[in-house]
Design goal:
The chain has 250 residues and is an alpha/beta fold. The protein folds into two domains: 110 residues, Cobalt-precorrin-4 Transmethylase, domain 1, CATH 3.40.1010.10; 124 residues, Methyltransferase, Cobalt-precorrin-4 Transmethylase, Domain 2, CATH 3.30.950. It has nine helices and ten strands. The strands form two sheets. Strands 3-2-4-1-5 form a five-stranded parallel beta sheet, with helices on both faces. The longest helix is centred in the N-terminal third of the chain and has 13 residues. The radius of gyration is 20 Å and the shape is elongated. The two termini are 33 Å apart.
Amino acid sequence: MPSGNQHNGTLHVVATPLGNLDDITLRAIKTLQHSGAIACEDTRRAAILLRHLGITGKQLVSYHDYNEPAAISRIARLLEEGVDVSLITDAGTPAISDPGFLMVRTLREKGFTILPVPGPSALTAALSVSPLPVSSFFFAGFLPHKKGRKSRLEFLVSLGATFVLYESPYRIRKLLEELAALLPDGELFIAREMTKIHEEYLSGSAAMLAEKLPAEKIRGEFVVVVHPCVCAHPEKNSSSNQYNEHADHH
């Protein structure tokens, strides 16, 4: 536990570009410049960003789902030594369906100071150009790959409100098939490769979007915004108690 008489470092949770390396805030750049160490998902990806920003000489600490306990202990030691640390992921805002939650929770419990450095997020970027109503919504992140996937999706559909998913290129076709069966009249908006050369935005029913996907190998992760057709769920036109209890408002 940090001592009140000791100067401890601060953990900065820094949002980084989704794809276009110019999408980074001035504060994020300054924070990375002044941090003694940078915790990152992939040290190679982090090195590319740091080179682009002209930042050198930083200690890079690998931090991902498979080494969390050891990495958190190492970061805690650095903070105890008075070293400021930046936490970044491969793209976007850490801890939003990306590594970061366990580190933030553990270090906060230990009494360390943790500050956000806001910036790019795949979630908010997609919602900002979505033609669907998103004044309130439920963010569900990635669905389970197998066990619990069907029941989770059925729960989301039962809310009768807009919900948002992340999906990989390997399961996007499966997701659209599932949504076509559960919400044939629903409206969807999907965003792929945002801020990159081949960024793409499509809207329509699940069945329509399945036809629009390229026949060849699909690349890039997807943000999928789903809005149930009002006529299909008239009794859920207004936010239900269930939605109010479970939804994450952003």
